[in-house]
Amino acid sequence: MTALQSDGRTVMPEIRICSFNVEWMNDWFTSDSEPAAFKPQFRDRDSSHLNDTDVTAKRTAAVIRAVDPDILAIQEGPSRQSELELFVAKYLANDVGQPLYRVLLGDSGGAQKLGVLYKPASVTGAGLAPHGDIVDLIDPWLSDVDGDAILEEYRFTRTPLVVNLAFGQRQLQLIVAHTKSNFINNGKEMWNNPQQHQNYIVTALKDRRRISAEAMRIRSYIDAVLARTSGANVIVLGDMNDGPGLDYFEKNFLTHNVVDILFGSQFRPEWTFHHAQHDLPENERYTAIFDDFVEGIDNKHMLLDHILLSPGLSAGGLRKVPESGAVHHNEYSAQVVNGGAHREDRPSDHRPVSVRLRY
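Structure (tokenized):
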């Protein structure tokens, strides 16, 4: 709703849209064969350390509360909608116990599902895109993901979650994505072992080709949307497992950056997307910190989480608030103790990103 300032000028309403990889939320809950409930403790994935579930969930929720998004896209959510609803009811409720958010959860991704949380007071309509509109994202397609020059059927590791939203008369489509991981078990040992070194390269390239294929499929879907509806309001957001620049494998083998595919061709500038986090100084454009044993860089800062905006969101009635793209470092750091050594010591291994829209 619009409002008036004391000087009589109209203040246009705004919404904050956020993306947050919440790091294996499914570990917090009982198995799918049991009624949905929080486990009191869960183990680290790389050690035998037992984490306090309540402490961990409170850290994650505290970041969400501090950012205070109207719409939150999550990656690595739990396997059941009832579990995500439990998290909202327990940790994201108001003073009288009412959940602040409603929940939509995708049906793809196993123990790492995609979800959308939205405030009903901010959103006048929300629902999953009809199956018939997104068959190109659901059905398999032909792609050469192993570099053998043979096309084979491939499908998303986690099918993107496509949600249609309304703010009064304004329409917006969110495409929440979490592309194929490029993590390789015992990767550092393989890379440093002369007998396993080449096997590591082959596996790493296959993973990146899969990420590339998934990015291309999302972009093909976007092009079809824009071809049907010029100026459509579309946001692609999530953990793309790739960032700006060329890593070792992209520079020496693929010869292209994977995430760049999502932006679109410069031969169709009217369809080219814009990156919300480019509003930030370059030294703040990162969402994760990992040791890169391939390039020999400890504590490498990487922008893996992205918000990409369609051209219509720069000029239409629903539009980006200038300079509103953010990576929420302060909100994240406030919930880190013990250097984030264990899962209960950090809200996630990714920082959330957001952007504001005005309508």
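The first strand starts at residue 3 and ends at 4. The chain has a mean pLDDT of 95.
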